[in-house]
Write a structure and sequence with these properties.
Layout lengths: L4 H16 L5 H15 L5 E8 L2 E9 L5 E3 L3 H9 L3 E3 L17 E9 L2 E10 L7 H18 L2
Antiparallel strand pairs: 1-2, 1-6, 2-3, 4-5, 5-6
Helix pairs in contact: 1-2, 1-4
The structure holds methionine sulfoxide.
Length: 155
């Protein structure tokens, strides 16, 4: 039987907690988290991290095609989520002015900022080739996964 989407996110949260447990290396954990998400959620063509360095986001561990390395804060979907320190859900990237097309196949996008004590550490970016792929369950589920990561790696 196919698990419901909330159940899927509960399972992913449990698996992520197990992957993070006892491992302090942020790059290793981000790499495993992007692999967990990319292979655990259906209909994605990219899943990964950008980490903030000053006024830019710099590409971190990911699964998918090679992507743009540096995104100014405020630019594209990722830079917008970082500037707002809030999740941005884009049902159709063609309707988002300034969307940065790393892979022309991407049609919808969900970007969750990594926020600790008001400071944006980076973003988790998920892309899908399907328009309207992400909904509120995805938003809540991914925010919970990011919270596990930030709690683990917060300074
Ligand atoms: N589309 C993103 C850029 C990152 S790639 O999708 C991996 C954006 O507009 O910020």
């Amino acid at each position: 039987m196919t698990a419901s989407k909330p159940e899927l996110y509960r399972d992913l949260a449990r698996e992520l907690a197990a992957l993070l447990a006892g491992e302090p290396d942020r790059i290793a954990n981000a790499a495993n988290m992007s692999g967990l998400i990319y292979h655990g959620l259906p209909d994605l063509n990219w899943a990964g991290f950008y980490f903030r360095q000053g006024a830019e986001l710099v590409l971190g561990p990911f699964q998918g095609k090679p992507a743009c390395v540096r995104i100014p804060i405020g630019r594209g979907v990722c830079g917008t989520a970082a500037a707002r320190a809030a999740t941005v859900l884009v049902p159709d990237v063609h309707d988002f002015p300034g969307h940065i097309a790393c892979d022309a196949a991407s049609r919808s996008e969900l970007v969750v900022p990594l926020v600790e004590a008001g400071e944006v550490l980076g973003v988790l970016d998920l892309d899908s080739p399907l328009p309207g792929r992400f909904d509120e369950v995805d938003r809540e589920g991914c925010e919970r996964l990011v919270a596990l990561f930030v709690d683990h790696h917060g300074r």
